Amino acid sequence: MLIETEYGTIDIKNDVIRDLVYKAVIESYGAVEMYGKSGFFDKILGKSEDKGINVSEDEEHLIIDLYLILEYGLPIKKVAENIQENVHHRVKSMLNFENLKVNVNVSGLKC
Questions:
Q1: Which end of the chain is less crowded, N or C, counting CB atoms within 10 A of the terminal residue's CB?
Q2: How far is 64 from 14, CA to CA, in rounded Å?
Q3: How many Å apart are CA 80 and CA 74, to the nearest integer?
Q4: Distances from the Cα of 61 to the Cαs of 16, 24, 69, 88, 111, in angstroms?
Q5: Which of 16, 100, 105, 17 is nearest to 63 (CA)?
Q6: Chain center to CA of 102
C-alpha cells in the first residue's frame, strides 16, 4: 500500500496490515481459529503464513478477506459483524485509510 505525502512516499507492506488485522480478530469475541482459503488442508500441510488473512488492493479500496472458525453456539451473524467492525475500525484508525472492505468468511464452527 503506497501513500503519497508532501515529504515523499510511504510503503506499508501487506504483512504489517495482516498483523494489525490478526490482533483485531483475536481480541474479538467468538473467533476460535483462522485458516487460509483451503481451510483444513492448510492445517494438514502446515501452511499458516497468511493466518487466514488475505490483503489485496484494487484501484480504490484495500480489501481484507478473513477465513475464520467461530465458536459453536454463538450467533454467527453477530459474531461475524463484530469481527468485521473491529477490523475495520482498527485498520482505519491505525492507517488513516477510509476506503476499506472487510469480508468475513466463516469456514466452520468449533466447540
A1: C
A2: 10
A3: 10
A4: 17, 19, 26, 12, 35
A5: 100
A6: 7
CA angle 3/8/95 to nearest 5° reads 30
Helices (H) and strands (E) in the chain, counts: 3, 6
Q: Tell me: domain 11-110, CATH 3.30.70.1350, correct?
A: yes
The structure's pTM equals 0.80
For the stretch 17-43, pLDDT in tens is: 999 999 999 998 888 888 765 445 445
Q: Could you read off the pLDDT of 74-93 as tens digits, one per residue?
A: 999 999 999 999 999 999 99
Q: 109: Cβ–Cβ under 8 A, 6 or more apart, which residues?
A: 69, 70, 71, 72, 76
Domain ranges of the chain: 11-110
b/e 16-42 (16+ beta carbons within 10 angstroms → b)? ebbebbbebbeebebbebbbbeebeeb
